[in-house]
Amino acid sequence: MKNDVADAGKRVRPSDFAPQNGAANDGDIFTDAIRRLDAAARHLDVDAEVLDQLRIPKSVLQVAIPVRMDDGSLRVFQGYRVRYSDARGPGKGGIRYHPQVSLSEVKALAFWMAFKCAVVGIPYGGGKGGIIVDPRLLSLTELERLSRGFIRQIAPVLGPDVDVPAPDVYTNSTTMAWMMDEFSIISGRKELAVITGKPLELGGSLGRDDATGRGGYYCIKEMEAAEGWNPRDISVAVQGFGNAGQHAARLLHADGYKVVAVSDSRDGWYKPNGLDIPAVIAAKVRTGRLVLPEPDADAQPITNEALLELPVHLLAPSALENQITGKNAARIQAKVILELANGPTTSEADAILQKRGITVVPDILANAGGVTVSYFEWTQNRAGFYWSLDEVHGRLRAIMARSYHEVADTAKEKGTDLRTGAYVLALKRIAEALQPEGPHRREASGK
In the structure, what pLDDT confidence band is assigned to residue 296 with cuts at 50, 70 and 90? Predict the structure, then answer.
């Protein structure tokens, strides 16, 4: 795991983040997420009891994680695990390490995951976890103690048939290996299927590394075919050059799309004639920063905020939530937005974008490739039989293509945008699972 380790004098305690975090986010992002549920419900005949069950997470666990630091001091970190729904299967969702994690954010992410899994038709509910921490300020051994300590605290609510975590922001396959191993120690047996996103040597799946970006890429390929695009005529800007953004940019570039801008939390570059994406990725892997592989007079630095407003055909926000809001939506110039991040567009911004005729491929469809290949990993772990990379890619493409057209058809039938179409499709599937008397008895009773 690559880690920028600051010296002890510059370390920031988790408590230092709490006041800003609560003031900035608490209550806002989850409330906005529930607005998507309300918008979808207007297009379906759904029992009020079902909607009531979907307004509140099934379980919320808040924990304190004491960690002995390398200098001998003890720090206590705050963490969360939310299981939003298990109507369609065990909870499923990532664990993120970030200084701005909040309970409201984790609840929203778990809600989105429940609907995401329903959109692509995989047998999961929704879950999410997070720890308030800047992992770049911890050593590798401190991160391992934190990861194992978190699993010890939340182990009672995890299990292959209960809730299955995965990587998210600032966590990776190494983090998942620690967590799976700690859960196995607690349970007294090897539990490969309790965690996904693991290294291949520990039951990981081929194709998991680029699954999120690849899933979004497959959505664009379906749109390309439907709209008759020539990739060489399509300019692309990618905000967030982590795992999802890098792989989507790489795949689109290889197909001839002109990726003109990329950015991450520290750096960004804009080149109207197109960037050499493989070289940019190689430079970031080599240096740890988003730098150009060699000086380029035609490239200029750009901020995350400015990148969002570039005159491109396709914009792919791939970083964090609430990037496109009521404040900047009127200045977005892209014709299509591919949401590789979770919740990058607020409901207020959605209304503005829709009026302006901008197509949004919503997060609960666009970034579902990650959880889909996590489902493949979980399935392979339980069967003890592993698939080739071509099999994984083929199965993923089939699911993403089918789901894209199911969402598009639902949106067309209901006269809505793609996001509402995705939520309508997901709500219908979740509601059928939640009906206490079952859908067939409901129809027989005439309700």
Answer: confident
Distance from the Cα of residue 355 to its chain's centroid: 26
pTM of the model: 0.88
Question: What is the phi/psi pair of residue 261, to 5°?
Answer: -150, 140
Q: What letter does residue 155 receive in the DSSP assignment? A: G
In the chain, % of residues over pLDDT 70: 91
Quick one: which of 218, 202, 204, 248 has its CA closest to 387?
A: 204
Direct distance between the N- and C-terminal alpha carbons of the chain, in angstroms, rounded to an integer: 55
> In one letter, which amino acid is 43?
H
The CA distance from 118 to 126, in Å, is: 9
β 314-317/235-239 pair status: parallel
Q: Which residues contact 312 (CB under 8 A, 6 or more apart)?
A: 235, 236, 237, 260, 261, 333, 334
Q: Output the CA–CA distances (angstroms, integers) from residue 85 to 113, 208, 321, 366, 447, in the order listed.
A: 9, 24, 21, 21, 24
Burial 377-392 (b: 16+ CB within 10 A, else e): bbbbbeeeebbeeeeb
b/e sequence 153-176, b meaning 16+ C-beta within 10 Å: bbbebbbeebbbbbbbbbbebbbb
- The rounded distance, in Å, linking the Cα atoms of 57 and 364 is 18
Alpha-carbon distances of 383 from 179, 198, 274, rounded to whole Å: 21, 16, 45
Query: CA-CA distance, 296 to 121, in Å (whole number)?
Result: 45
CA angle 102, 103, 107 (to 5 degrees): 120
The span from the CA of 224 to the CA of 8, in Å, is: 51
Q: How far apart, in whole angstroms, are the C-alpha atoms of residue 437 and residue 182?
A: 40
The CA angle 241-265-19, to the nearest 5 degrees, is: 135
Q: What amino acid occupies position 260?
A: V
d(CA 215, CA 401): 9
Q: Give the pLDDT score at 11.
A: 35
Distance, CA of 156 to CA of 439 (rounded, Å): 32
- Active-site positions read 128
Compare 163 and 6 and report the one with higher pLDDT: 163
pLDDT, mean of residues 59-75: 97
Q: Report residue 285 CA to chain centroid gap.
A: 22
CA–CA separation, 197 and 444 (whole Å): 43
**Cβ atoms of residues 111 and 87 within 8 Å:** no
